Amino acid sequence: MTTLSRKATIYDIARLSGASPSTVSAALSGAWKSRRISETTVETIRRIASEQGYSTNMQARGLRQARSGMVGMVIPVHDNRFFSSMSQSFEAFARDRGLVPVIASSMRDAAEERRIVETLISYAVDYVFIAGATDPDAISALCDAAQLRHVFVDLPGRGAPSVISDNYHGARLLTQRLLTDLTHSDDPARDRIYFIGGVATDYATSRRIEGFRDVLAEAGLPVADDQILTCGYPPRRAMQEIAALCDRLGGLPAGLFVNSLTSFEGVLGHFVGLPPGSFDGSVIGCYDYDPFAAYLQFPVHMVRQDSHRLIEEAYRLIDDPQPGLTVKEVEPALIAPRTIYAGPFGEHG
Question: Which pLDDT score is estimated for 171?
Answer without folding.
Answer: 98
